Amino acid sequence: MVRDMTQAVQAYSYAGPSTLAGGRLGLSTSGGTALSGPRTHPRFFSGLLTHAAPAAAGLLAVADVALTRYHKPRPGWTRDPVVTCDGERLRFESFSACGGVYARLDVTGLDGDVLDRGTTNVDVNGPLRESLARVGGSDPLHLGVGPDELTVTTLDGAVVEKKVPLPSRWLRGFAEVQVIAAGWDLRAELAGPHAVRFLRSLPRGARATVWAVPAGRDLRLATSPAPGAVCLSGAGRVATLMPLLRFAKALRVYGPADASSTASAWEVELPGMRYTLALSPEPWRGFSGEGAVLDDLATDEAAGDADVVGMLLNFEPTVELGLLADRSGLPLDRVRAALTQLGTAGRVGYDLHDAAHFHRELPYDKEQVAELNPRLTAARALAASGAVRLLSGDEAEVTTRGGVRRVRIADGACTCPWWFDHQGSRGPCKHVLAARISTRTPAEATL
User: Fold this and answer.
1) Which among 94, 71, 74 is positioned nearest to 84, based on CA atoms?
2) In 416-430, which positions are buried (b, 16+ CB within 10 angstroms) versus exposed (e)?
């Protein structure tokens, strides 16, 4: 991996291209992590997908998100989806090139052998996409994740290598979306016919913003927030849901309690699987800049706790906070902060349907992760330099080259331009973080 200040170049090395022939889908894997540790071309699953056509369409949808830049569309690099096998399902994940759309396909309709548990990247190439698009409703589909005897074409040929730029915001987006989504709840659920009708009624414009308001067993569209409503910012960003409508059994919509908030998630229930899209607050805003992770990362004990909690993760279908707290001896709030820290390294995601975190591994190292939050780095430098003066009550003054900033620690208000621009909607500024770091005593840090 070669790094600079803005992005990494990740080399995906495949033993051969993924293929679909004779009803046998062989997904070629790159380097990854299995239960036994790092592996080259790991093998995870071999068997039948019980619902071939929706699986093919869902895999295409995940790949399409990885290919697309929704904000200021232009040709770019494709990023191969990440797949995690937890023993019960296969999770295929991707992020859009612009960082504002996260997609995941959870396939539970499996009939075969789980060979291992872990995470890797899978090759989705042009010819494979064309083959997947031709899979019909009655076609059998035999899936092999990893190079094995089920792949029809020989894998003895030349290695297929893709060198793909991975901007740091891509990894930051994975971290931010799991923290933000953990605060959302189910706001509406529509049965198949109602779901199809609603989704087909959406405006097609990529920048159109509407609110979905529950109305009995249906949803109606509104142009402004209303009680119980969920915002759909950039309606055109749900385009990958449309090819799945012929299989849709239900639509679930997730969002925060605040109807004026503009981030949301849209989950389509398919036979034997679920397809989920999480959308950033605006088409031009990637998840990477939301700042939801910063308070958890700013605690003195977060990194050490993450090492402890990380050793307890074992690619479980769901991560149970109470069980982690018991095993680690840490209180729940520190377990949550540790999961946030692990999320910045791509090791933890969040499943809205299960309302639980899950374990995965992405190919980033600790040195690179440390560079991903410049606000936090600047805050720690301010606190260490003695720039923070704690005042009586809940206030502090932070001296910077731009002047003295006065902050309210609890609600995160500050007199800096960042606060006036964002009003706390994108996480705390560096001055608030510095003040919060300075309020912690060594005794509190070791509790």
Assistant:
1) 94
2) bebbeeeeeebbbbb
Provide the β-strand partners of residue 120. 32, 83
Q: What phi and psi values does residue 376 have, to the nearest 5 degrees? A: -70, -40
Q: Which residues contact 360 (CB under 8 A, 6 or more apart)?
A: 82, 84, 91, 93, 119, 315, 346, 347, 348, 349
Q: E-strand spans in 108-184?
A: 110-114, 118-122, 142-145, 160-167
Q: List pLDDT tens digits, range 366-417.
A: 555 556 667 888 888 899 999 999 998 889 999 998 899 999 988 889 999 9
pLDDT of 362 > 80? The answer is no
Query: In this structure, what token pair is assigned to residue 25?
Result: 């889908």
Domain ranges of the chain: 2-166, 175-266+277-288, 294-343, 373-447
For residues 332 and 313, is the Cβ–Cβ distance under 8 A?
no
2-166: CATH topology: DNA Polymerase III; Chain A, domain 2 (3.10.150)
pLDDT tens digits for range 222-246: 988 888 899 998 899 999 999 999 9
Model-level pTM? 0.82
Residue type, position 292, single letter: A
Kindly report the number of other CB atoms within 10 A of residue 366's CB atom. 9
235 near 200, Cβ under 8 Å? no
Please name the amino acid found at residue 96: S
Q: How far are the Cα atoms of 150, 349, 423 from residue 358, in angstroms, in the given order?
A: 29, 5, 32
The answer to whether 54 and 272 are in contact (CB under 8 A) is yes
* DSSP secondary structure string for all residues of 416-427: SHHHHHHTTBTB
**Tens-digit pLDDT profile for residues 304-335:** 888 899 899 999 889 999 999 999 999 998 89
Q: Are 81 and 94 in contact (CB under 8 A)?
A: yes
Q: Is 164 exposed, middle or buried (0-12, 13-18, 19+ CB in 10 A)?
A: middle
E strands, 223-292, are 230-233, 250-255, 264-270, 273-279
Distance CA 429, CA 425 (A): 10
- What is the residue whose two structure tokens read 């396909």? 105
- Closest by Cα among 407, 373, 402, 375 to 391: 407
Coil, helix or strand at residue 254: strand
Distance CA(346)–CA(62), nearest Å, equals: 18
Classified as helix, coil or strand, 242 is helix
Concatenated DSSP letters of 385-422:
TT-EEE-STTEEEEEETTEEEEEETTT--BSSHHHHHH
